Amino acid sequence: MNAYLNALSLLPEEFKKPLSAVSENIACKIKEIRFRSGEPIVLYSDKIYYITKSGFVTSLCSSSLLVADEKQMYDVVFALSRRSLHTYQDMIAKGYIPLRGGCKAGVAGRAVMKNNVVYSVSAFNSVNIRVSREYDGCADELLAAVGDCTSYLIIGSPMSGKTTLLRALCRFYSGKSAIPPKKIAIIDERDEIASRTFGCFVDVGVHTDVLTLYPKAIGTEIALRTLSPEIIILDEIGTVEEAGALLSAMNSGVDFIATAHGGCFEEVLRRPNIKALINAGVFKKAIVLEGKQAPCRVKDVVSF
User: What percentage of the chain carries pLDDT values higher than 90?
Assistant: First the structure.
């Protein structure tokens, strides 16, 4: 319930109040809270729920449901941006706003282009608040699969538990009870792993340094030069720059734990940048996750 309420905490009161009234047995399973301009607000878990204007939860679509119009969509993004759209302009242009406790909001709308890149968003059509939760023991199966290996790639589809696993792995390798603890550097480009920007920290271990909002390639270089990590952790790798940084660092004595989007190992291997990392020996294993129906569960292990 606390994770769900945490995800709602910055919303305007007109939406926070009815959404907060959701019963605990439903709230504890909610994975996404979706606003779409002119459409009913939807709660996604293993089922689909709507909220009526009077604050009741229902699985039926009707004219009595809570809806956000175009102005209210702006108000939602404005509130999630701590009432400063200018401060978050670059993040919104990239499609997200980091929230508290590891939650995040995906944002989509009308793009304003500048020099062939998205410079800002002038109207908001969709906001997707993803609820971040921690699960005790969620990494046990993965840790058993990798054994002593500390350089591996975690592959999974959206909502398969990749980021949740990264946090749990940080606590395992560098937490209070780790013997001996390892020094970890997290390159947290979107502030999704450690959630350090807004004062509601996620526990990622005593011996972990966090580089918040650094591009992954630049953050990797800085961590190697200044923080002497034993393990560098990155979420959602895949660009040419990121692959180049990992290849440059692979002989520096540091291991890498990273995630990549994909439904299977063969799918990820078709990406030239990731294939180059695997062929070069940056990763020793690949862990494929089951998917959103069974978050954090291991489906397959590939050793190189």
Answer: 80
Burial class (CB in 10 A: 0-12, 13-18, 19+), 164: buried
Phi and psi at 261, nearest 5°, equal -70, 135
Q: Phi and psi for 154 in degrees, rounded to 5?
A: -100, 120
Query: What is the identity of the amino acid at 270?
Result: R
Q: Which residue has the tokens 């709602």?
A: 8
Query: Do 271 and 243 form a contact (C-beta atoms < 8 A)?
Result: no
Contact in structure between 208 and 174 (CB atoms under 8 Å):
yes
How large is the C-alpha radius of gyration of the chain? 20
Would you say 270 and 260 are in contact if contact means Cβ atoms under 8 Å apart?
Answer: no
Query: How many other β-carbons are positioned within 10 Å of the β-carbon of residue 279?
Result: 10
pTM of this structure: 0.87
Determine the 3-state secondary structure of 298 from DSSP. Answer: strand
pLDDT digits (tens, 9 = 90+) for 130-172: 998 877 799 999 999 999 999 999 999 999 999 999 999 999 9
Average pLDDT in the chain: 93
Residue 3 has pLDDT above 90, yes or no: no
Q: How many CB atoms lie within 10 A of CB 43?
A: 23
List, in sequence order, the alpha helices (H) in 110-176. Answer: 140-146, 162-174
Mean pLDDT of 50-63: 90
In the chain, what are the domains? 2-130 (3.30.450), 140-303 (3.40.50.300)
